[in-house]
Amino acid sequence: MQRYFIDNPITDETTEVTLTGNDHHHISRVMRMTPNQKIYIVGSNHQAAILQITAISEEEVIGEIVDLVTTDVELPVEVILYIGLPKGDKLELIAQKATELGVTAIVPVTTKHAITKWDNKKATKKIARLQKICQAAAEQSHRTVVPYVYDLHSLKDVVERVDDHEHFVVAYEETAKSGENKLLKNMLMEIDMGDSIGAFFGPEGGIHPEEVNQLLNAGDHVKTCSLGPRILRAETAPLYLLSAISYATEL
Amino acid sequence: MQRYFIDNPITDETTEVTLTGNDHHHISRVMRMTPNQKIYIVGSNHQAAILQITAISEEEVIGEIVDLVTTDVELPVEVILYIGLPKGDKLELIAQKATELGVTAIVPVTTKHAITKWDNKKATKKIARLQKICQAAAEQSHRTVVPYVYDLHSLKDVVERVDDHEHFVVAYEETAKSGENKLLKNMLMEIDMGDSIGAFFGPEGGIHPEEVNQLLNAGDHVKTCSLGPRILRAETAPLYLLSAISYATEL
């Protein structure tokens, strides 16, 4: 069932809900739904519900809540991905797949080795597009939270954010090459539910050693880690991490 | 360093190696390498080595082995993915990413809900293309094994192969919906190194309940499993499984 995110909370007391704009268009034109059909809606408080459509006008879809949904589909920890701008449309693939895999937010970062550069105008456009991709993927994967895409950060901005997280990992190829493979597992065995994990990934060229040092110096809780012995592409590494976090915390 | 797969084994006694055909073209034309430069080569016995180029002619690249590489980058278990034909070029994405994540082989399967159909001619072409993608991804991710892409299988063929594996999991959305999330972890806690894991994934429309039953009836070691509480797209689910297997067995 398609799901739609609304701007108001959904509580036990909510009975009627009105959808307008894009949602109205999608329900009436794209899905060609009719009264009595049902959709999922998700409130601003992340409460999901089943809405039975009662009326569709030129401007609005009106429905009545027939059931609150109680299954929790969100990761029990918060995961914020900091991504050094990769080439082409790889960040779009990351946004879509990371949303399916439960990411909380994505932060695009300018790094030394990145070939891709965004000026202000391009950044605004790209971020709006990524936010749309996250929204669509959240609807399709039945999430109750739409991941937030932050403005373009510099490495200095990331350093300042390190303390927002209880844990901060830097995926670093040199750590993989050293054969030290236990660091991620050790970290995941120490997390408490509700913790925030920051994770930094470089672009295709990797992270510059100076940048790794800047991050490591930002806090004792910052660790480099490997994601197994194989070399993963820039867009595959964040998906491995999210899958591992899900496996460790949800299964 | 680029790596190339050769048809002969590499042993302590191997001193000189000659590369021809595509590898010669790639080394001399694409990479424009010159004598004294080094490349990785991987023998048919999965032994990797560093080769120093001694001569490049119009037809051949000749080099001498300067070091055997001992790091093991292969998953300690064998993972064969059985994939119900997904739409568009998603199988290509799966082949590339699954190779990075350590897959042993990929088996395309015709299923009831699949929208995509391959006739014999198309199958031959598609499989050759997938095999090429696996080869390129194996080189890039520094693997010592190139995953094998099997011919198109029917569900009946898969049922007959179930006993090739010590463990066989069917990723089934209904299992995810039932909230039974422990089955994959339970299976992975029981595997021994060297075991073979078969894993079946449906196309976008999912697996038909009848097909699930056919697989379940094929052996006591066949289990349905969920990959966490979120709905993953057809091309994301196999990547989640491989990441989880790597996390459970390699980290």
Automatic annotation (TrEMBL), chains A, B:
Which terms does the record give in the GO molecular function aspect?
rRNA (uridine-N3-)-methyltransferase activity
EC assignment? 2.1.1.193
Residue ranges annotated as coiled coil are: none
Q: Where is the Ribosomal RNA small subunit methyltransferase E methyltransferase domain?
A: 74-246
Segments forming domain Ribosomal RNA small subunit methyltransferase E PUA-like: 19-65
- Catalysed conversion reaction: uridine(1498) in 16S rRNA + S-adenosyl-L-methionine = N(3)-methyluridine(1498) in 16S rRNA + S-adenosyl-L-homocysteine + H(+)
Keywords from UniProt, A to Z, are: Cytoplasm, Methyltransferase, rRNA processing, S-adenosyl-L-methionine, Transferase
Is the Heme keyword given for this protein?
no
Instruction: Give one GO biological process term.
Output: rRNA base methylation
The record's similarity note reads: Belongs to the RNA methyltransferase RsmE family.
Q: What is its biological role?
A: Specifically methylates the N3 position of the uracil ring of uridine 1498 (m3U1498) in 16S rRNA. Acts on the fully assembled 30S ribosomal subunit.
PANTHER family according to UniProt: 16S RRNA (URACIL(1498)-N(3))-METHYLTRANSFERASE, RIBOSOMAL RNA SMALL SUBUNIT METHYLTRANSFERASE E
* Name assigned to this protein: Ribosomal RNA small subunit methyltransferase E
Q: What is the native source organism of this protein?
A: Aerococcus suis
